[in-house]
Amino acid sequence: MTSLDLLSPGARARLVSIGGERAFRCRLMELGLLPGTPVRLVRKADLGGVLELEVRGCRLTVRHGEARSLAVVPLEG
């Protein structure tokens, strides 16, 4: 298990848990990030420190610091 911010662009993973404050967790769950959900790290933007994710066919961005609170298990292939 690792955190989302440590994945390489293009990597796929399954979300295991969401840490952080309650409001943050609720917001991510509203966006479709639930434990067990597959995610793909599309890219990391150095400027602004954000990560672009693909979740359930949609793209969303999270801050680098927030991505640290998302525990994932990398998927093969």
Characteristic key phrases:
single chain, alpha+beta, SH3 type barrels
Give a written overview of the molecule.
With 77 residues, the chain is α+β, with helices and mostly antiparallel strands. The protein has one domain (2-74): Ferrous iron transport protein A (FeoA) (SH3 type barrels, Roll), CATH 2.30.30. Helix content is 17%, strand content 44%. The chain contains 2 helices and 6 strands. Strands 1-6-2-3-4-5 form a 6-stranded antiparallel sheet. A hairpin with a 2-residue loop joins strand 4 (50-55) and strand 5 (58-63). The longest helix has 9 residues, at 22-30. The protein is globular and about 30 Å long. The two termini are 17 Å apart.
Computed Rg: 11 Å
CATH architecture: Roll
First-to-last CA distance = 17 Å
CATH topology label: SH3 type barrels
- CATH homologous superfamily classification: Ferrous iron transport protein A (FeoA)
Instruction: Give the biggest beta sheet.
Output: 6 strands, antiparallel
How many domains comprise the coordinates?
Answer: 1
Q: pLDDT below 50 for ≥5 consecutive residues: which ranges?
A: none
The structural class is alpha+beta
Helices and strands, in order, run as EEHEEEHE
Mean pLDDT: 92
DSSP E strands, number = 6
CATH class: Mainly Beta
Q: What proportion strand? A: 35-45%
Q: Which secondary structure elements does this structure contain, and how are they paired or packed?
A:
Layout: E1 2-3, E2 12-18, H1 22-30, E3 38-45, E4 50-55, E5 58-63, H2 64-67, E6 70-74
Antiparallel strand pairs: 1-6, 2-3, 2-6, 3-4, 4-5
